[in-house]
Give the backbone structure.
Amino acid sequence: MAAERNDFIRDIIDEDLRTKRHTRVATRFPPEPNGYLHIGHAKAICVDFGVARDYQGTCNLRYDDTNPTKEDVEYVESIERDVRWLGFEPSAVLFSADYFPKMYELAERLVREGKAYVDDLSDEQIREYRGTLSEPGKPSPFRDRSVDENLALLRKMKAGEFPDGACVLRAKIDLASPNMKMRDPLLYRIRHAHHHRTGDQWVIYPMYDYAHPLEDAIEGITHSICTLEFENNRELYDWVIENTGPWSPRPRQYEFARLALEYTVMSKRKLRQLVEDGHVRGWDDPRMPTLAALRRRGYSPEAIRTFCDMIGVAKANSMVDIGKLEYCVRDDLNQNAPRALGVLRPVEVEVTGDVGASEVDAPYFPPDVGKPGSRKLAVGARIFIDRDDWSDNPPADWKRLALGRTVRLRHGYCITADEVVARDHDGNVTKLRAHVVEAAKGAGVIHWVDAATSVPAEVRLYERLFKVPKPEEGGGDFLEHLDPHSLEVVTTARLEKSLASAPVGSRWQLERVGYFIVDEDTKPGSLVLNRIITLRDERIAVAAAATEKKENVKAKTRPKSKSPQEYRAEARARDAELAAAYANAQSLGLSADHADLLTGDRETASLFTETAKAGNAELVAKWMINELPRALGGKELADAKLDAPRFAEFIALVADGKLTGSAAKTVLAEMVATGKKASEVGAAASAGQAISPAELESKIEAVIRGNVDKWNQYRAGKDGLRGFFVGQVMKSTPNADAAAVNTTLDKLRATFSP
């Protein structure tokens, strides 16, 4: 019986064991080796392996490697690594390809029994003959071939005598079935492609709906647990089992709800698009939902397993609040991440007076966690505090540092700020002077590091990749909801000395800052930290404030039945300046629709008109209509720090090819947020500087030379490796344009042989 768990799958198993339908439990996790596992797969892994564990049964890791054009050894290795990292030990590691001879033998049996036939119809014709949900299908003209003819044709298929697509093997079931899956489904198709395991031994490969039940039956699986999208496949699953048996035990398929998580996409196609188009730095970019990315982000397998247990196993699909995952991550880190001190944006403080001891002993964990361990913190007369802990104009309840205010340094002495010594060109404080005071009752506590002994670090502050909970909702382009501020790289951080030797993969709480992991990009003397998660969900208060009903002054004067186009037309009818801007936009070559969008209010019209004076009117319109709203992120244009001269400079850089793709979008978002010129944005701008085609080709060739086997497979037709090469190039050459990388790969595929 299942221990301390209660869901419908375990109820089924309990009943099966009680009635002796089965005397043991055997499950499997059957991924296709054509991509990286993500958080959705983690739920399936926890269900499949968790059920086997609870009933002292077995769970196989079985690769569904039936489509050689999309599979790769890289994915095989990463999948097994991820399963074991999650804390599960497969009873066996198996491959569908190992069963190809048995599957073919059973296919010939189906033909001999008149239950399968070779069909020469094309894919398009098969779809047409299959009918619709309201109309039955019609038989293929090849459906009534004799058994001998079908056997002869099937054997020629197997011998490689036909090209790809010439014919297929279909089951002969029911062309009038209300379940479209049962209308003579395909069992085998021809693929002259190299297989990662069987090489060139086979040129016909079984379809998933034929292979999957047979794999379960051959392995003695008792409970084949799938997600709900396979519910309609169950009838075909049962048909294959019943017509190829008898099997003991007889496997049965059960479906549960797949994981749908807020602020995330799970589609392999969309995840590949994020990588190939350069929106992220690779499959293990910590903003991605892949297990490789979550591992690099700093999520522990224990936290992920706890999350999967928390959401449970259900029969109906639903969207899961990402806050549940983040709660599990924080709870795990609170108990296991040792504490340390670090400041992200340091302000130097020169301390006068007696600082006491030269070092203090600081525990790694607070008393409520109760774990042992401590380290020595150097205490000197020069320290760094975080800029966020200073205020020039503090409110009455301010408990951090300001002129005349007193705070306690975490694990250290108390100081009172005396004067501002220096500021930067933007007016931000960069250096203070303070003096030591006796313990001050009621003083707030701030974090700090010793200036003389602290070590520099690069800190990567990751946020959710998407701005909205459901980026795929509404059928629009999910890329429109990407958050351009989902990564902020801080290069000024200073950390306490003890972290200088922190190993890659170690996780820490920087007190009052957040939880962090030492990233694999760390080199001796060059620390890199990724923020795993903030100390608390700071969005809760922001979201609550956003839900408050705000009075819209413009809306008060509008009739509620008019469209945005009508409002813009009325505005131009009332305002001669807008009418003139509309006419001017059309005179510059813009369509009436685009001119309408850009001249509905004075701020928008003025920005377009003034920017277009420098030229490139159509490019200005494109960026204002398609990209500027995303960069504004809900702000009014009047509140943004963007004027016509800055925008014109940006457009010129784009027109000259010096800013391209996602880098240009990032630069625009930074300009809107900070008011800087495109040329001043720094890393973002330089990341967007185009490289020459020759230099890009050289960079790609270097990647190819490091992955010759994969390149040869890609040139031989394994298209699924395109994403691998694009990701490797973008990782090694961040300033490359993803579209140019794809184009150059196409060119080299035909010409380059390392």
